[in-house]
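Session log. Operator J.P. requested a structure for one protein chain; no other inputs attached. Running the standard single-chain path with token output.
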Amino acid sequence: MSKEITPSDKQATAVDAGNDRANERAATPAVDVLEDETGITLLADMPGVSRDHLDLQVEGDSLHIEGRVQPQTPAGLEAIYAELRVPRYRRSFTLSRELDTAKIDANLKDGVLTLRIPKQVHAQPRRITVNAG
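Structure written below.
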């Protein structure tokens, strides 16, 4: 795994200690982390989560991802049986200080959350021009 991002052992907690979401069971989404010279790309599988039910937070060096699944039920019908037991995803990561958390770009498409986290300018490689003379 990249030295830039590591999964946290503890689950993300809600900001408000009195919030019941912190105690609610959550599934851990499968995540791929890809790194190049300019930053990292994180891909998280979160099927059934819409943009309106997705919460991303950066607190210090921690990234918290949480998404709530909203099952689609046809109008006039009510689910009496559902195999979806954990309607929430939750995952936390510890980020390297070389990453620029102020410039995170997030995209959710077809149940896959894509986060692009660039490296700070000073941590990116640069070419040095040598002058002859």
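Operator note: Residues 100 and 120 are 5 Å apart (CA to CA).
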